[in-house]
Amino acid sequence: MIKKKLALSGALLLAPIAALAQEANPTDTTKPLPPVTVLSDKKAEPAKHKVAKKKNAAKSTKAAVVPSQQPADVDLSLSGAEGPQPDSQGVMPPSVTAQTVGGVIVSDPTLGRVSSVSREGLNILGGAAQTNFYQGADIIPSVNVESPDPFGLSNTRNINVLGKGDFHLSRNINGLPIMGIVGGNDLYDLENISRLDVYRGPIPADKSLGVSNASGVIDQIILGPQDGPSTFAEQSFGSWDFNKTFARLDTGLLSTGTQLFISGSTASADKWTGAGDESRDSFALGLSQKIGDDLKVDINTVYSKFDGNPYKALTYKQTQNLDQYYGLDYDKILNYNKILNDAGVATSLANYYQFNRVTSEDFAVLANIDYRFAEGQHLVFKPYYWNNDGEQWSGSGTSQVQIWRQQNDNLGGVLEYNGHFATGTDVSLGYWWPVQEKAIAPFVDAKSINVLQPPNLTGAKATFAVPSYEYDAGLKTFADIAKHRAELDGKIYGIEPGSSANAAIQKMIATNQFGLGGFKLIESSEAGMLVTVERAVREKKWVVFLGWQPHPMNIQIDMKYLSGSEGVFGPNDGEARVYTLTSPDFLTRCPNAGKLVSNLRFTTQLENVVMQSVMNKEKPAEAAKAYLKKNPQVLDEWLAGVKTYDGKDGLPAVKAYLGL
Q1: I need a surface site. Which of 128, 358, 634, 639 has the fewest CB within 10 A?
Q2: According to the model, what pLDDT value does residue 132 have?
């Protein structure tokens, strides 16, 4: 009887949402944004709305949990005086305009557009357990979520984006491809998520990271440490012994520039049909630290453990007779007397519910290291790591159990340069060809970005290198490496584990390409590799390592690059060119600024010198000034035809500023 009352209560709580959809006025933009907001990067059009509908009695029980106030929301405003700004986690918001109708979201379903659900929207849509981020996206146009679990705890679920399933859906956190295709459970409680972004169809290059994104991208943006100290706790309960306890502590901004949050939760529920239950425990920690005026470090780590019995799927024939099979599930009791046939053979042993279960233990850590080297100019490094260890038990045939061990290790990093001009027009100076060609090509073909010709940097490369004394002694090509196996001690020095360069080296060793079979790849950080090489150079020992330019190593070490790579690191022995990207109409809208970015040409030597100064703790602006004072001739090309704000020639003005 209690269960029926709670289910009825849930239905009553859902009723006002539909009512809001009927009463909303799409043209009224003076009211504050409602809790559920979809953001679209297409200009506002007449509203097309999708109403949340109650699908079944079980699903309605999710609203039976007593709602409570959430931690303070982050500011979801999308722009400021200088254009879009990163949020507290260093994540850039989508470039959007917003349309809303009451408590129901509205979105442009055009391919390639982004839709976002706010923190309060997740509170409404995310289910009683507040763990299943799929449920939070269910109301977005062209997104359909199916699950037999009314609370959002179960991993038995599916999501279709534009009709395609979740096997090829990129499930990101703060824009990083944390989770793989197989294995893992929901990492974060939705109470710790500030926004959910869903990308469908063609996806912007900087949002498309993931193991596979053919279905689209769902990106969870973490609710980072808050500016003010606060504590938040809630106790939820519902039908079928559902309960969840969640607590979060924020320190606020401390005198050291530190902000910290810690949260923990435990949730469990019985299945609404059949035997078994589901439980999930989670712990999360977020740290934000400002170091000086220009460096900010955000670190997030999360642990999550899930253990549950899945629901049994019905056959198509059984779905045609739901009156009989609606509650069909795995056997509650393992009774040999009942399941033996006349010949004494087990006929349904595999249908026992304890032989059908899922366990998963996950740990992840991700960071955002943001260095502002000039106003509106940021160099951002985002390392991440995810570990998953789980098992999926499933009965097979009459008396067999398949145990699928799922273990994942995902290590990676993203390096970004973000620059924004005061005019509101974005320009990227960092399109590396050919490495980024596949990611950029669809947008070039669609004429949504413009690649300026010629490149702003030529002569860049990444390939094997050796000290000059080795090169002079005969180690000049990839084929020469094996000839000097003894002098090299059978070792090749690479960079961080998981890098694409290391993968290429390991492949050469595994396939004995260039006779490298039996060599050992020594993986380490960039700094560790360079320390080893510099020590070898001082001692005149032999070493072969992964080198690249531009980089200060080309100044610090007397080194030479090897030839004859046969395209292992790309064409022309790892050659790369760097191009400038602009919006399609930038050169016509901003001809003076367009002239400047079109004129910019760099050399590897220029970048080697300036990077070395920066790495030696000199401020980037001062390092650039020092270089220009010593090499003023580069200004002649850069500033040719460029005017000052008041229409005067730019070259004399810049030289006067530099004291030339």
Answers
A1: 634
A2: 81
Q: What is the pLDDT of residue 152?
A: 80
Give yes or no: residues 217 and 243 share one domain.
no
CB-based contacts of 235, cutoff 8 Å, min separation 6: 243, 244, 245
Residues for the chain: how many in total?
660
Contacts 24+ apart (CB under 8 A), 639-646: 639/596, 639/599, 640/599, 641/595, 641/599, 642/592, 642/595, 642/596, 642/599, 643/592
Q: In this structure, are 181 and 318 located in the same domain?
A: no
User: What pLDDT is attached to residue 4?
Assistant: 32
CA distances in angstroms from 304 to 358, 454, 552, listed in the order given: 14, 50, 42
CA separation for the pair 594, 587 (Å, rounded): 5
Domain around 336: 230-419
393 with 309, same domain: the answer is yes
Residues of the chain with pLDDT under 50: 1-85, 93-111, 340-343, 345-346, 422-425
Q: Taking CA 413 as the corner, what is the angle to CA 412 and CA 417, rounded to the nearest 5 degrees?
A: 160
Place of tokens 């079109």: 598
Q: Tell me, what's the pLDDT at 559?
A: 94
Tell me which amino acid residue 461 is: K
User: H or E element: which one contains 522?
Assistant: strand 520-522
pLDDT for 46 equals 31
Q: What is the pLDDT of residue 558?
A: 94
Residue 23 burial (CB count, 10 A):
10
Q: How many CB atoms lie within 10 A of CB 55?
A: 11
Q: Residue for token digits 């809303």?
A: 100
Q: How many CA atoms lie within 13 A of 112 on its CB side?
A: 11
Tokens of 193: 């998520």
**Per the confidence metrics, is the pTM higher than 0.85?**
no
Collapsing DSSP states into helix, strand and coil, what is residue 35? Answer: coil
Give the pLDDT score at 646.
Answer: 85
What 327-333 contacts at long range (C-beta under 8 Å, 24+ apart), as own/partner pairs, is: 327/273, 327/274, 328/273, 328/274, 329/271, 329/273, 329/274, 329/275, 329/353, 330/274, 330/275, 330/276, 330/355, 330/356, 330/395, 331/275, 332/274, 332/275
Tell me which residue has tokens 């002098």. 487
147-174 pLDDT, tens digit per residue, is 888 888 877 778 888 888 778 888 899 9
Q: Over the stretch 81-94, which tens digit does the pLDDT of each residue have?
A: 333 445 555 555 44
Residue 8's nearest CA partner among 58, 55, 76, 46 is 58
**Cis geometry, peptide bond prior to residue 454 (ω within 30 degrees of 0):** yes
Give the HSE-up count for residue 642: Cα atoms under 13 Å, Cβ half-sphere: 20
Identify whether 446 is part of a domain. no
- Name residue 161's beta-bridge partners: 143, 164
Three-state secondary structure along 240-257? CCEEEEEEEEECCCCCCC
Q: Which amino acid is at 107?
A: S
Strands 377-396 and 520-522: unpaired
Task: Answer for the pair 557, 534: CB distance below 8 angstroms, yes or no.
Answer: yes
CATH of the domain at 494: 3.40.190.100
pLDDT of residue 493: 94
- The verdict on 215 and 274 lying in the same domain is no
Q: Is the dihedral of CA 327, 331, 335, 341 positive or negative?
A: positive
Structural domains of the chain, count: 3
Number of CB atoms found within 10 A of residue 17's CB = 20
| Same domain membership, residue 41 and residue 24 | yes
